[in-house]
Amino acid sequence: MIKPRYVLAAGLAAGLMFAFANLASAQGAALEGREVRASDGAVVGTIAKVIAGADGRPLQVLVQPKGARPTGPRSLPYKALSADGDRFVIPLSKAEFDSMPAVDLAAK
Q1: Which residues contact 34 (CB under 8 A, 6 or more apart)?
Q2: What is this structure's pTM?
Q3: Within the chain, what is the greatest distance between any pair of CA atoms?
Q4: What are the TM regions of this chain, as residue ranges (predicted)?
C-alpha cells in the first residue's frame, strides 16, 4: 500500500516540474524577437528561437541575421549572450558572426 505522504510528495514534485517547464518556456518566449549586437556594436540580428535543455533552461539560441540578403539563423550558446538593457551582445564581431554557417532547419 502506498502511503499518502509519498503520493503527496510525488504530486508536489510533478507540479514543481510542470511549473518549472512553463517558466522556462516563458523565458524562451520572452527572449524571442530581442535584438542581438556584435561586440563591435553592429546589429547582427534577432533571436528567432530558444532551445532548452532537458532541465528546461535555455541552452542555445538561433539568431536570425539582419541585412539585405539574410540567410538562415546562426546557432549560439545561450551563455554567450550578455544582457545590455533590452538587447543582447555576443562576443563576436559582425564579420565573425556573418561567417558562421547557417543552421539548416529543414535537415532531419
Answers
A1: 46, 47, 86, 87, 88
A2: 0.70
A3: 67
A4: none
